[in-house]
Write a structure and sequence with these properties.
The protein has 581 residues and is α/β, with parallel strands linked by helices. The chain is 65% helix and 10% strand. It is built from 19 helices and 12 strands. A 6-stranded mixed β-sheet has the order 6-9-10-3-11-12, with helices on both faces. Strands 2-1-4-5 form a 4-stranded antiparallel β-sheet, covered by helices on one side. Strands 7-8 form a two-stranded antiparallel sheet.
């Protein structure tokens, strides 16, 4: 199974390399030229040796001419090798670019459930670290595999032309190298793959700890984090040691084979010289060929272990690329224009995990312009309803309609364009404040960006930043409070002003005084727009047209604030639990 997996990965890699067949062909031709030149030099050296017959019997003009030819051929071989290295670099990094681009493109198509099930650091490890490891192995493979194979074939050709008997001795020892290389290749692939997996786990853990260091320190979990990291690090050490052990036996094993070949050539060649079948120059030529013939086996065996590591890393990247993408838009999917905001939810069932239904027989009818609040205890399904509205997940049964159209018959892009979303978890990209606010409308003029910031009560603190709207911030937005980051996210939605709004605990990180002002801005923004508000603080949804009280995936109460209090049910209990003295 492991061998099949390795072969399958190699076929996938070759599909990417095939796009650059011209450069591959040129690299092979240059490798051939370089090898031919280096193999011709021993012949010239042998000829020069045969011109040195004894004291005072040296043909210096002829030797000098041979030396000039050796210099010229060496220069040609060096140029060919340099050009081959340049081309191999180009092939390798274009293949790596293509794989990374495809992996990142595929990430954009993966369903949210994949992101929820895999640590961010582990995904980053596949796209960055594993592809880098693959690049190193592929580059070494190109550089040494081509020249190695051609050197072996070329050397055999030259040796056969000089002496068939000694060449057959060399061929008889060759299978030993092949057996050694095959054994190492089989042993190292699984070990390098395991090493790559543990490295991804380690990257994910480091990303998790660094991103949440405040929480780790606040709960005094530093030692436990260190212990966990130490355990992963120890597993990585063991995996790496096993992989390195098998790869490290390559050199001594192949050197042993080299010595056997060299010894065989020396003994048989010496006997041939004594018998008059071979000149001293030809023997020196053969000994040079014996070295050149065996050297590629050493290099190729080393390359094989690097390629096993590269293929193991490539396999993890291809697993990501081949992960089942989100269900594509239906054939002939409708482009939703500016929605009126009529939303109907009919008998919807949904479960994140099979057999664990969260939403059961959910029904809701929302008129255009209505403000609908979703309240209830943690885990009752409020945010899940939002995920279904946005089609981050698709319903298991029933349907959701917008303006009379099933959301599954609409393109995701056009559906989501009609929703403005402010979440409890803030997200800011690496860029300027202006670029973050204009994320949904990159071409928005600065005046509109500033108006949106003023409406979100973010303008005043933005002006106090070192470069104002041109201040560069990142995902962590160092220097900004959580509330300020949330104001920027609110400004982002206020700039786009779509026809429907989703506010999922949108003011959870804002002080009470600013929240009152933001609520006024929201009220102005929500006027005439269908709005869904998820809230734990019930004071923020008193003015909602309809309040849905949810528990265990069901709507158990429905009405406005006054009506629900008069009922004295679950909403009354929630409200009084927050405001009781």
């Amino acid at each position: 199974m492991k061998a099949k997996a390795g072969k399958g990965t190699l076929k996938k890699v070759l599909r990417y390399i095939r796009r650059y067949w011209f450069f591959v062909g040129l690299s092979i031709a240059l490798a051939g030229a370089s090898v031919a030149a280096s193999l011709y030099i021993p012949i010239l050296t042998g000829d020069a040796v045969d011109l040195i017959l004894g004291p005072g019997r040296v043909d210096f003009p002829a030797v000098w001419e041979i030396l000039l030819r050796v210099g010229a051929i060496t220069g040609m071989a060096a140029l060919a090798q340099w050009l081959m290295s340049v081309i191999n670099n180009r092939i390798t990094y274009r293949v790596v670019r293509d794989i990374r681009n495809e992996a990142f493109r595929h990430l954009q198509k993966l369903p949210l459930k994949y992101m929820d099930a895999h640590p961010a650091g582990e995904i980053v490890s596949r796209v960055i670290a594993d592809v880098d490891q693959f690049a190193d192995g592929l580059l070494m493979g190109f550089t040494q595999l081509f020249t190695g194979v051609i050197t072996i074939l070329g050397t055999l050709g030259f040796m056969f032309s000089v002496n068939v008997t000694i060449t057959l001795v060399v061929l008889l020892v060759t299978p030993v190298s092949l057996v050694v290389a095959a054994f190492i290749a089989k042993s190292t692939y699984s070990m390098f793959r395991l090493q790559s997996q543990v490295r991804g786990e380690q990257t994910g853990f480091v990303d998790e700890m660094v991103g949440n260091q405040k929480v780790v320190q606040a709960f005094g979990q530093e030692r436990r984090a260190q212990a966990r990291f130490g355990e992963i690090n120890e597993r990585l050490r063991q995996c790496s040691l096993r992989a390195i052990f098998f790869s490290s036996i390559t050199n001594p094993s192949t050197r042993f084979v080299n010595s056997l070949v060299y010894t065989g050539v020396g003994i048989v060649g010496a006997l041939s010289v004594i018998g008059g079948g071979l000149s001293v120059g030809q023997l020196s030529c053969f000994l040079s060929y014996a070295n050149q013939y065996t050297k590629p086996f050493n290099e190729i065996s080393g390359v094989v272990t690097e390629l096993q590591n590269a293929l193991a890393c490539a396999a993890r990247v291809f697993e990501l690329i081949e992960e089942e993408p989100q269900v594509p838009d239906a054939p002939g999917a409708i482009e939703l224009g500016t929605a009126q905001g009529q939303v109907e939810i009919h008998q919807v069932d949904f479960a994140y995990r099979p057999g664990q239904r969260l939403i059961k027989d959910f029904n809701l009818s929302v008129r255009p312009g209505q403000r609908v609040a979703l309240v209830g205890p943690t885990g009752c399904g409020k945010t899940t309803v939002i995920n279904l509205l946005m089609r981050f997940y698709d319903v298991d049964a029933g349907c959701i309609q917008v303006d009379g159209e099933d959301v599954r018959s609409l393109t995701r892009r056009s559906l989501r364009r009609n929703f403005g979303m402010v979440l409890q978890d803030t997200w800011l990209k690496n860029g300027t404040v202006r670029e973050n606010i204009a994320y949904g409308r990159p071409d928005a003029p600065l005046e509109e960006v500033m108006e949106a910031a003023k409406a979100a009560h973010a303008h005043s603190f933005i002006k106090r930043l070192p470069q104002g709207y041109d201040t560069v911030i990142g995902e962590e937005a160092g220097g900004l409070s959580q509330g300020q980051k949330q104001l920027l996210c609110i400004a982002r939605v206020m700039l786009s002003l779509p026809s429907m709004l989703i506010l999922d605990e949108a003011t959870s990180s804002i002080d009470t005084r600013t929240e009152i002002r933001i609520q006024r801005a929201f009220a102005k923004m929500m006027k005439g727009r269908t709005s869904f508000i998820v809230a734990h603080r019930l004071s923020t949804i008193r003015d909602a047209d309809v309040i849905l009280v949810m528990r265990d995936g069901h709507i158990i109460e429905q009405g406005n604030h006054k009506e629900l209090l008069e009922k004295g049910g679950f909403y009354w209990e929630l409200y009084n639990s927050q405001f009781a003295h």
